[in-house]
Amino acid sequence: MRFTDEHHQLRKTVREVIEKEINPCYDEWENGDGFPAHQVFGKLGKLGLLGINKPEKFGGMGLDYSYQLVMDEELGAIAGGSIGMAIGVQTSMATPALARWGEEELKAEFLAPAIAGEHVTAIAVSEVSGGSDVAALKTTARKDGGDYVINGSKMWITNASQADWFCLLANTSEGSPHANKSLIIVPAKTKGVTVGAKLDKLGMRASDTCPVYFEDVRVPQRHRIGQEGMGFMLQMMQFQEERLFGAASSLKGMEKVIAATIAYCKDRHTFGQPLIDNQVIHFRFAELQTEIESLRSLVYRAAEEHVAGKDVTMLASMAKLKAGRLVREVSDACLQYWGGMGYMWDNPASRSFRDSRLLSIGGGADEIMLGIICKLMGILPGKRKKTP
Ligand SMILES: Cc1cc2nc3c(=O)[nH]c(=O)nc-3n(C[C@H](O)[C@H](O)[C@H](O)COP(=O)(O)OP(=O)(O)OC[C@H]3O[C@@H](n4cnc5c(N)ncnc54)[C@H](O)[C@@H]3O)c2cc1C
């Protein structure tokens, strides 16, 4: 990955908006009712940051994915995980399929306002009966005249209480669970859509996550993204940018908590010396930083291949798996070195510990990543490559 002056300039823009518009309010939003998505997205939209790799025709910058990667990495500089995640939902989870496979009219109606930051978006795949087994989801969208009539519910939907529309995955026919689904844009204000109360989460507490219920919700069939029955495949492809986002946005957050913990360990003395002078501690930081750099290399390589138009399912799954595990390791190690202070709610390692736990669960749990990697390695039982 060779970054140009344009990449550096973009990084600076993202950093400035975080320092000016997000970090000063972060604690208040986390300890209050959550962050105001329209206000924050409006500011990001004006700077073009919600459409970096989206088509210029709909207000995007039309740049390649390496620029989106720079933004994702920089989002790790936000004081906690919630807002980066909410932004990631907008740029890398709810809109990639629409941008790539949506009809022009659909993009004008829904993608353009999302890029401008006027609309807040959400991705609605998981259901209370299970998020890992996407093919088994139960929500249906039955054809009636020119409409779909949607019934079912979705669970743990990020941005839901503020969303203007949902990118919904539903069964549009009977038959093979991999070929009977479609992605459909459902405006939140449509009759029959109800957003449930905010869920009380362990971490990511500045963002809203809610159940969403669909009862005889009628939307025109033209709200479907791509061909009918292709939704499972399109969502699997859309997941690749979600997983790369998860890995890329974890890097700076880890470095930030390590830096804060190093500063504390230089200051804090036990047995007549600073904590940092214990070899077991300074070696641990060196180990963790080495792991972060290895992850960064993997993420950059995956991004490069994505830019080149290659299938990055393997690399994105590996990056997500590694990131999910490493953020847990880093936040746990750092929390330990803060001692009792680390166990306090407002401590940076404590927030990182709470927020980072999600990465091994959301967007495909670690075990799902391992299953994908095994499948591609040809060692998943029942899917082994035939030996010659
Ligand atoms: C804060 C938060 C935000 C979220 N945001 C969204 C969102 O915006 N949109 C959305 O659609 N979803 C969202 N999710 C849902 C998330 O993607 C799911 O929670 C996740 O996919 C796991 O699904 P599940 O919780 O139903 O776990 P299950 O599918 O019930 O699995 C439970 C656990 O079992 C293990 N497991 C599962 N399958 C296997 C297997 N084959 N082999 C071995 N182990 C296995 C894994 O460890 C997994 O964590 C969010 C979740 C949270 C907590």
Characterization of the model:
- The chain is an alpha+beta fold and 388 residues long.
- Helices cover 48% and strands 14% of the residues.
- It has helices spanning 5-22, 26-31, 37-46, 65-74, 81-93, 96-101, 104-116, 231-267, 279-307, 313-337, 348-356, 366-377; strands at 121-124, 140-144, 147-158, 165-171, 181-187, 193-195, 209-220, 224-225, 269-270, 273-274.
- The strands form three sheets. Strands 1-4-5-8 form a four-stranded mixed sheet. Strands 2-3-7-6 form a four-stranded antiparallel sheet, with helices on one face.
- The longest helix is centred in the middle third of the chain and has 37 residues, at 231-267.
- The mean pLDDT is 97.
- The structure holds flavin-adenine dinucleotide (FAD).
- The site of flavin-adenine dinucleotide has 23 residues, from strand 1, strand 3 and helix 12.
Quick structural summary:
By secondary structure, this protein is of the alpha+beta class. It has helices spanning about 5-20, 25-30, 35-45, 65-75, 80-95, 95-100, 105-115, 230-265, 280-305, 315-335, 350-355, 365-375; strands at about 120-125, 140-145, 145-160, 165-170, 180-185, 195, 210-220, 225, 270, 275.
Mean pLDDT: 97
Biggest sheet details = 4 strands, mixed
Report the strand count.
10
Q: Using the alpha-carbon principal axes, give the shape.
A: globular
The total of helices stands at 12
- Which spans have pLDDT < 50 for at least 5 consecutive residues? none
- Over all CA atoms, what is the radius of gyration? 21 Å
